[in-house]
Amino acid sequence: MKTMRIRVVAIPLFVLTLWWCASAFAQARGMTIANLPAQAQSNISAAVARGNPDYYARAAGSDLVAENPAQKIRAHFAVSGIEVRSPGAVWKVAFSSYGYGESLTTVKKASPLASLNRVEYRRGSVTEWYVNGPLGLEQGFTIEQPPQSANGLLTVALALAGDLKAAVDDDKSGVQLNDRHGKARLRYAGLAAHDADGRELRAELALRGEQLLLQVDDREARYPVVIDPVVQFAKLTTSDGQSNDEVGGSVSISGNTVVVGAPGASDGTDEGAVYVFVKPKNGWSSMTQTAKLTASDGVTATELGYSVFISGNTIVAGAPDSNLGPGAAYIFVEPSGGWKNMTQTAELTASDGQTHDGFGSSVAISGTTVVVGSPYATIGSNTEQGAAYVFVNSGGGWTQTAKFYASDGAAYETFGSSVAIAGSTAVAGAPGASINSNNDQGAAYVFSNSGSAWSQAAKLTASNGTHGDNLGHAVAISGNTVIAGTYIFPIPERQGGAYVYVKPTTGWVDSTETADLTANDPSNGDQLGFSVSISGSVVVVGAPETTVGSKTDQGAVYAFLKPAGGWVTTSNYAAKVLASDGAKGDQFGYSVSVSGTTGVIGAVSATISGNTGQGAAYLFGQ
Fold first, then answer.
1. Cβ atoms within 10 A of the Cβ of 102, count?
2. I want to staple 333 with a disulfide (CB 3.0 to 4.6 A). Which of 61, 345, 476, 611 is the partner?
3. How far is CA 287 from the centre of its chain?
4. Is the peptide bond before 69 cis (omega within 30 degrees of 0)?
5. Looking at residue 27, what is its pLDDT?
6. 577 by DSSP, 3-state: which?
7. Which of 14-23, 82-91, 292-301, 612-621 ranks highest by mean pLDDT?
8. ∠ CA 472-409-539 to the nearest 5 degrees?
């Protein structure tokens, strides 16, 4: 059997988001093209809508119509196909044929049939179906019998029409939809395919007249096969940006709010700033900030925004102040009327901070607990061993409650270069740690809070690590899963990668990785693993020095999906994400953050309106 999905979302100026996915289940020679990415979210969306008549399809003569109140779109189902309307534009999609290579079978005409929020077109051995729900309009195809000829690429053809014009990228991995003025309104990118073993399959997009073809080489595949493109929602820039602001030096997302650090902001003084972007009522679109956050006591080289993290209505931003002092972290709490230009609600400093400690180089927050990394702190006689500090807000203000560092730490290990926290578990990266005489191989440390104190629970290392890997340069945690980046691995190519560590059923212990995440198309100097983020089953890894075409250091981001059976030894990426307007030296992927199926990516060196290094952030999702 095989299934395919289209997700449609409307946002201002009508940016239409299409998301196609495919997978398959081998049953003799039968197969299904299926919507695996964000499967759990899709199931929830469908279940919620089944109990809500607002999402039901209703008769309109011989046709059907369905409203989507969450996405503000209206779908019209006719024998000729589906038409989706949103203020200002119309987009039409019709399943026209399928097969292998040039031998495509035209599908039979059929009338739409409705069952609550589900619409079906039954065409003999092929059933085309749609499910309307809060996440969007999902389209699928069930093909009970595969095409008889297996000569060429497995192909599903979609007939396109409407107000937007499609153009396929040179590398055939993405599609850009432009309006009649030639302005891009949709970025459909990150095409990748892999089979049930996690092996990448060659996949590409093609236009044939007014048809968009999804093509996969499945000759060596073991089903299910997944085709997973990702859509660019918006480009976020600052209204007061200047050269070398480094917007996107750090990013974080929580719900409908994106936070972007700009450590080089303030007229080139590196005083720094933090920008807040709030999702508009009609959805994300390219925009400038909702609010700008600054430090009331900021001075030259403070570098506010070197690190940022948001949880609920609270933002913490690091200002390591490497030139003038030990550093600080600033707390900003959203006012009752929403985010606005403001200075900090509170300022956090280390009780024993010293000059050049780098306090604030990394920050993380979970509920009322903040962790701040201080990677250059001296522990005993160990210069730059590094430490992390814990602050808790018990209602009367923020108080330092703990300081922790590696039990086996040594000089120059820079523990705290990265930190992450989830509930009572914290993680700190020590990229300078020596492992088995391998200098700077790096490690990540897990600490647990028993309720009265924090204690080291595990030291995480790489089974294939070597000197100079810098494992722990970036870390992230979600539930029982830790991600650690190693952007220099392997020496000397600096292709990079990331490691997955899953908490054993008996609790955290010293261990090596559960899975090793790498790119299937690595090149020297990509620096995959420079940034990492995880949300549930989705892992996002930045490779800011990836060359795209002839554009050196344009940067790329790889998204990995947790396999149905859990993380395996080696997991190939599900999608490769590029900026729609990426340029040489942008360093797209310098920072990443993911929440659910939406990710924000920093391009710290992007040129904006002639301002070199002003930087930007991009929103992607499914």
1. 11
2. 345
3. 19
4. no
5. 24
6. strand
7. 612-621
8. 15
Residue at token pair 């929830």: 44
Whether 116 contacts 58, CB under 8 Å = no
Closest CA to 251 of 614, 606, 595: 595
pLDDT band at residue 121 under the 50/70/90 scheme:
confident
**Share in percent of the chain as helix, strand, coil (round to 5):** 0, 50, 50
Q: What is the mean pLDDT of the chain?
A: 81
Fill in the amino acid letter for 510: D
What mean pLDDT comes out for the span 312-317? 96
Residue 560 in contact with residue 575, Cβ under 8 Å? no
Question: Which pair of structure tokens corresponds to residue 52?
Answer: 């809500």
10 compared with 440, residue with greater pLDDT: 440
Residue 46 per-residue DSSP state: H
> Per the structure block, which two tokens stand in for 619?
């929103």
| Structure-block tokens of residue 580 | 């729609």
Least trusted range by pLDDT, from 171-180, 231-240, 263-272, 599-608:
171-180
Q: What is the pLDDT of residues 463-487, one digit of tens each?
A: 988 888 999 999 999 999 999 999 8
Angstrom CA distances, 484 to 63, 219, 496, 544, 608, stand at 52, 34, 11, 16, 31
pLDDT value, residue 562: 82
- φ/ψ (deg, to 5) at 53: -60, -20
Domains of the chain: residue spans and CATH: 2-228 (no CATH), 233-576+588-621 (2.130.10.130)
Q: How many whole angstroms from its chain centre is CA 536? A: 11
Radius of gyration for the alpha carbons in the chain, expressed in angstroms and rounded = 25
Would you say the pTM of this structure is higher than 0.85?
no
Cis peptide before 224 (omega within 30 of 0): yes
Q: How does pLDDT run across 249-264, given as a tens digit for each residue?
A: 999 999 999 999 999 9
Backbone angles phi, psi at 388, to 5 degrees: -135, 145
Cα–Cα distances (Å) from 567 to 41, 198, 499, 512, 585, in that order, read 19, 10, 10, 14, 33
Residues 601 and 589: beta-carbon distance below 8 Å:
yes
544, 523 Cβ separation under 8 angstroms: no
Task: Please give the sequence-ordered ranges of beta strands (E in DSSP) within 71-172, or none if there are none.
Answer: 73-78, 81-86, 89-100, 103-106, 113-115, 118-123, 126-133, 136-143, 154-162, 165-168
The Cα 227–Cα 205 span in angstroms is 11
Dist. CA 584–CA 576, nearest whole Å: 18
Which tens digit of pLDDT belongs to each residue from 2-34? 223 333 222 222 222 233 222 222 222 222 222
